[in-house]
Amino acid sequence: MASMAKQSCVQKICSHLPDQLPIMAMMIKVEVNRILPYPRPMPDQISFETRIARCKFRGWHRGTREADYMIGGFFDRYHASWGETELAWYETLLDEEDVDIMAWALKTQDVPDHIDGDQMELMMRLDYVEIPR
Q1: Alpha-carbon gap, residue 108 to 1, rounded angstroms
Q2: pLDDT above 90 covers what percent of the chain?
Q3: What contacts 24+ positions apart, CB below 8 Å, involve 126-133?
């Protein structure tokens, strides 16, 4: 008997779902558009200046003060002379783990091929780290 009552409740709920689905779908669409407004620019449509600004933020907000000084300090010292190639390299670097980046810069780990190059050589100099006193 309880099974019949449960089935009856489920049928009543399900019978109202088709009426509620458009409202729910509209609510979800409104919420998604509020969070992710469209149209969003594709990565290849983002300006060089916007990418530089994002890199500055990401370089200085790594999670530890040591990483901020090393990665953000590198950005501050060298970004003014960067072109597309150097910026793309730095964006790739920012996707790596802080401990790995710091180990490469301190020469305690081998640098992977996709990171190694002139920019990494500059980072290994560590002459850009300024610690405020």
Answers
A1: 72
A2: 59
A3: 126/70, 127/77, 128/73, 128/74, 128/76, 128/77, 128/78, 129/69, 129/70, 129/73, 130/69, 130/73, 131/69
Chain centre to alpha carbon of residue 70: 19
Closest CA to 128 of 91, 67, 85, 78: 78
DSSP 73-104: HHHHHHGGG--HHHHHHHHHHHTS-HHHHHHH
Q: What does pTM read for this prediction? A: 0.66
Domains detected in the chain = 1-40 (no CATH), 43-125 (1.10.150.250)
- pLDDT per position as a tens digit, 6-57: 556 555 555 655 666 666 555 555 554 555 555 555 656 899 999 999 999 9
| Residue 122, Cβ density class (10 Å: 0-12 exposed, 13-18 middle, ≥19 buried) | middle
Angle between the N-to-C axes of helices 65-78 and 48-60, in degrees from 0 to 180, rounded to the nearest 10 = 150
Q: How far apart are CA 5 and CA 20, in angstroms?
A: 23
